[in-house]
Amino acid sequence: MMYGFCSLPVVPMRAEASDRAEMVSQLLFGDTFMVEQQGEKWSLIVMDYDGYRGWVDTKQIYFLDEDDYNKVKGWTIVSELLHVVAHVGGTELLLPMGCKLPKAGESAPSGLAIEHYVAHDGAEASPVDIATKWLGVPYLWGGKTCMGVDCSGFTQTVYKVCSIKLLRDASQQATQGYVVHSLDAAQEGDLCFFHNADGRIIHVGIYMGNGRIIHASGCVRIDTLDTKGIYNADVDKYTHTLSAIRRIR
């Protein structure tokens, strides 16, 4: 079995082994994964965090032995929207929220020596407080960072900072936690899911309380939510039909 590690701030994961293929998700610095197929140009990987599969450029990933692999799996999570990390040797990386770094006193794999660690206690973080840091971030299919994010990448990363593991896609996240039976019973931090005309879950956002939702649609924004769905005052219409509410914690 081959083990891998993301040693760049962000690496695209693609649906097929091609630069022209759809970006289905992203690797963030510190993410670990299993390598199913290794090629000179492309490698097929499976993420440890959520089991997501995709193709990555082999030049953009770092291969680990089993000992280093087990060490980096326990690194701490960057909780700032962007964080500058200094490599020993003088170069710097700008890491987005959701990346992972060694805890204080821990060493990085050979060739990845870094300093200026981020300490973070996810148990104290509020999903809504973390989510509002993303306001205005543009929508990007497959994105998971403040440079561009899709709806489920947004919720997954926000909850990751709060030490709550979500799956990658909205339809997968809709299977987690337990059902909240009405909007009146919803609490701040619940996940709200929305379906298309075929009844398929296609969108997710975070309930803020008081009939408001924060979600990635065009950009990360706050809109009104009622029993019908999301009402966007900018376009004066409902944009998403409410399907389910789930409590994850």
Beta-strand residue percentage: 35-45%
CATH-level-4 superfamily name of the largest domain: endopeptidase domain like (from Nostoc punctiforme)
The level of helicity is: 10-25%
Radius of gyration: 19 Å
CATH architecture of the largest domain: Alpha-Beta Complex
- Class by SSE composition: mainly beta
Q: Unreliable stretches, pLDDT < 50, 5 or more residues? A: none
Principal-axis shape equals: globular
Order of helices and strands: EEEEEEEHEEEEEHEEHHEEEEEEE
Helix count equals 4
* Straight-line N-to-C gap: 33 Å
Number of strands: 21
- What is the level 1 CATH name of the largest domain? Alpha Beta
- The average pLDDT is 91
CATH fold title of the largest domain: endopeptidase fold (from Nostoc punctiforme)
Describe the strand arrangement of the main beta sheet, using strand numbers: 16-17-18-19-20-21
Oligomer: single chain
Total number of distinct structural domains: 2
Defining key terms:
41% strand, 2 domains, 11% helix, SH3 type barrels, 4 helices
Please give a structural write-up:
It is built from four helices and 21 strands. The chain is mainly β. The radius of gyration is 19 Å and the shape is globular. The chain has helices at about 65-70, 125-130, 150-160, 170-175, and strands spanning about 1-5, 10-15, 25-30, 30-40, 40-45, 55, 60-65, 75, 80-85, 90-95, 100, 115, 145, 150, 180, 190-195, 200-210, 210-215, 220-225, 230, 235-245. The mean pLDDT is about 90. The protein folds into two domains: about 1-115, SH3 Domains (SH3 type barrels), CATH 2.30.30; about 125-245, endopeptidase domain like (from Nostoc punctiforme) (endopeptidase fold (from Nostoc punctiforme)), CATH 3.90.1720.10. The chain has a six-stranded antiparallel barrel. The chain has a five-stranded antiparallel sheet with strand order 6-5-4-1-7.
